[in-house]
Amino acid sequence: MGIIQEEKIFLNQTMTTQEEVFEFLARQAKGLAISEDEQQVYQKLVERENEGTTGMMDGFAIPHAKDQSISEPSIIIVTLAEGIEWNSLDGQLINFVIALFIPDSEAGTTHLKLLSAVARLLMRNEVTEKLKTAQTKTEIATLLNEKIGENE
After folding, report:
1. Rounded distance, CA 105 to CA 120, Å?
2. What is the pTM for the complete model shown?
3. Do strands 94-103 and 74-84 pair parallel, antiparallel, or not at all (unpaired)?
4. Which pLDDT does position 44 carry in this prediction?
């Protein structure tokens, strides 16, 4: 089973601010048993964002939280019905969020490997185009798991 699981993908969500996205991600992290501390995860997402934007190019953002309340490395994906302001590198609105959740104990290793794998994928046009046109959770999970697998 790949790191991207369909139950951790949420399509066409209607959120209008970065804060709402972070609240949603923290709630899901707790609901999916990624972390037992929703508030702590929210806090870590905000702290990380304050260090520098996680809004990449082309409508994608990669927020991440690293905390001792997180039990295993996980990724939650959210697509937004409408793009939202994220202070992205190219100034575009964000409508595709790939959030990473990393246990403190693995901060240096897993975190960096996952982050660089995802960031590299988002630099490849054929990947971002396919992600944008994917209609189902299965399509997104399959594509990302295959591509992340290629990079290892």
Report:
1. 24
2. 0.92
3. antiparallel
4. 97
Side chain identity at 140, as an amino acid letter?
A: I
Element (H, E) at 12: strand 9-13
Structure tokens at 28: 């899901």
> If residue 46 lies in a helix (H) or strand (E), which one and from where to where?
helix 38-51
Reduce the DSSP state of residue 55 to 3 states and report it: strand
Of 81, 88, 131, 99, the C-alpha closest to 35 is 99
- Among candidates 127, 120, 122, 111, which has minimal Cα distance to 151? 120
The DSSP code sequence of 68-118 is TTB-S-EEEEEEEEEEE----TTSPPEEEEEEEEEEGGGTTTHHHHHHHHH
Task: Give the span between the Cα atoms of 91 and 41, in whole angstroms.
Answer: 26
N-term to C-term CA, the chain? 15
Cα angle 38, 41, 45; round to 5: 140
24-43 per-position pLDDT tens digit: 999 999 999 999 999 999 99
Under 8 Å between Cβ of 137 and 2? no
